[in-house]
Amino acid sequence: MNQNISRRGFNKLVLTGIAGSTLGAFGMATPLFANQKHVVVIGGGFGGASAAKYIRKLDPSIAVTLIEPDSTFYTCPFSNWVMGGLKAMKDIAQTFDVLKNRYNVDVIHDTAVEIDAVNHSVTLMGGKVLNYDRLIVSPGIDFKYDALEGYSREAAETVMPHAYQAGPQTELITRQLQELRDGDNVLICPPGNPFRCPPGPYERASLIAHYLKEHKPNSKVIILDDKEKFSKQGLFMKGWERLYGGMIEWRSASMGGKVLGVDTKAMTVETEFGPEKGGLINIIPPQVAGKIARDAGLVDSSGWCPVNPITFESSIHPGIHVIGDACIAGTMPKSGFAASSQGKVTAAGIIRLMQGKVPAPPSLVNTCYSLVAPGYAVSVAAVYKLTSDGIVSIKGAGGLTPMDADEDQLAEEATYARGWYKNIAQDIWG
Amino acid sequence: MLKQVSVWAVAGMIATVTLTGCNSGDAGKTSGVRAIEDEFNPRGQILALSCASCHGTDGKSVGIMPGFYGKSQVYLENALKQFKNGERYSTVMERHAKGYTDEEITLIAEYFGWACQQTTN
């Protein structure tokens, strides 16, 4: 039996070898031939980098150019772990070397400033103009700084960080936490829906409380929320009670959580119930699709980008696909995992379109781990498909960590959270 | 005694199937060499691409999640069905597996069998 299998295996190896060499002769070349299809991707985050890698992986005959301002991309997932002292900045740093060297993606570190949807070109800040057959826009989010009186980009960069794009903002809030006087409170002010990473502010509250418990036991975290309920609420609140006693206080919008404005000098937040003082104030403003998507007219009145749910091609400008936080993807949350899932579906769809074939119906996934303490994590999962109501999660699948999960299971989920980060980072940038 | 023997026979088959790696689940068939297919089912591809986000590209895991690169089509199909039916312990996988029909599970397993053959060399 073993011999038979070996012979079969050998035949397959030979045949695969022939297929491989054919690919080598015609497929792998990177120079841009006159007739070679060219995809330009704007944004090297979870969505854009996934799309770039998977187009090259699944059809190496297509040339891909990736436009990303930074040579190091810091991920928002796990940036809360940095604040809690559980990870270093280098642990959330991703680079583009593998995309460049192994997948032959032409990575240009510059900023896209203009999209010409009629002539199919993108202009970069450095002056370069790139032509594309298809364009993928994955710009992430921008903040509506003027939604809160007294708040501004400058306030975020100096006094009251949003820390909702990782990098210098993560370093600033982490430093402020370390310098916080024991007894002063941390205020976290999340926006209403929709916004990036719905459980993010609450994982942040958890890990800041973890840090405070060890280093500043007289301080506490107050969440001033612009909502009446939040993601994984029951699981978070149960965890907070078990792990942090009264150290985390959540106020819903109607119970004084709604923030009207800030005073950066007095270090106060103005609520409907009066001012609240904080030693560290984390303002997470309401959000819209990234600037280039708005400038190119890819957004509707909601500030986000409507797309065809099969290929994520813009409903406004043909030939341009919008993925990740910037797009409206049915009931999918704005998460790194969702963005990557959309990037891969878009990659497969674009390849089919360029081959003159019909794209397959989409299948998308989201999994989101939130760490409540180092050995205590909760998760939510969903599988999505296309129905007449758009992209919806499949009933009977997915869902939350059970409310009665025991300590072993919660610890196991924390271990899997670490494993998830390693694998998704490898799947996108590695 | 007979029961004992058949248990070992089954165990042996499972071991063989697992070891055959890219031999995509035809170990039980006697139809001989199965030609390499250049085409894959695009539905299978779309469904299968999701798996890599937790299990690594092509199922080559670098974290604690089990990798499945090189596992046979039969192995993958059985494992996914066991997760779906709650016969195999997991924290998250059962929640995912319930999102796919048995036909979709077969398509996923077939795609990884095909993809593994493409990357063997």
Structural account:
- The complex is a heterodimer of chains A (430) and B (121).
- The longest helix of chain A has 25 residues, at 2-26.
- In chain A, helix 2 links the parallel strand 1 (38-42) and strand 2.
- Chain A is 33% helix and 25% strand.
- Chain A has 430 residues and is α/β, with parallel strands linked by helices.
- Chain A is globular, with a radius of gyration of 23 Å.
- Chain A has two domains: 29-142 and 288-360, FAD/NAD(P)-binding domain; 149-285, 3-Layer(bba) Sandwich (FAD/NAD(P)-binding domain).
- Chain A is built from eleven helices and 25 strands.
- In chain A, the strands form eight sheets. Chain A has a five-stranded parallel β-sheet, covered by helices on one side.
- Chain B has a single domain, classed as Cytochrome c-like domain (Cytochrome Bc1 Complex, Chain D, domain 2, Orthogonal Bundle).
- Helix content of chain B is 54%, strand content 0%.
- The longest helix of chain B has 18 residues, at 2-19.
- Chain B is globular.
- The termini of chain B are far apart.
- Mean pLDDT of chain B is 78; it is low at 1-20 and 24-37.
- At the A-B interface, helix 1, helix 2, helix 10, strand 22 and strand 23 of A face helix 2, helix 3, helix 5 and helix 6 of B.
- Chain A: It holds the Pfam family Pyr_redox_2.
- Chain A: It comes from Prosthecochloris vibrioformis.
- Chain A: Residues 38-143 form the FAD/NAD(P)-binding domain.
